[in-house]
Design a protein that fits this description.
108 residues, mainly alpha, single chain, rod-shaped, Flagellar protein FliT
Length: 108
Amino acid sequence: MGHSEHDVLARWRCELNQLAQRLRDSADAADWQQVQQLDSLLAQRLILLRQHPAVKGQLATELARLQAQHHSVMVSMREVRRVLEQEMARFNAQREGLRVYEESREWL
């Protein structure tokens, strides 16, 4: 492997490791907008990486780590969404109950 090939591989390794860490940090901070932006960036970078199969083949460890991190973050995000949907449903049910109660008091 030539010097420039080694540099390219090192840059990709660094970038993929940083993306994995940024995804985790953003999820831990519940910064879902940042997670979404990183997810888009990741998709763009992986499309670019497909154009370099030799480099991609040498990044199997980093790609596996990033894939695991991405999966974990997506699971966390779905769980947060599920909890928020439940809370919204509960809130809406309570609000409807209060509205009915207020209307029934007006009849008295």
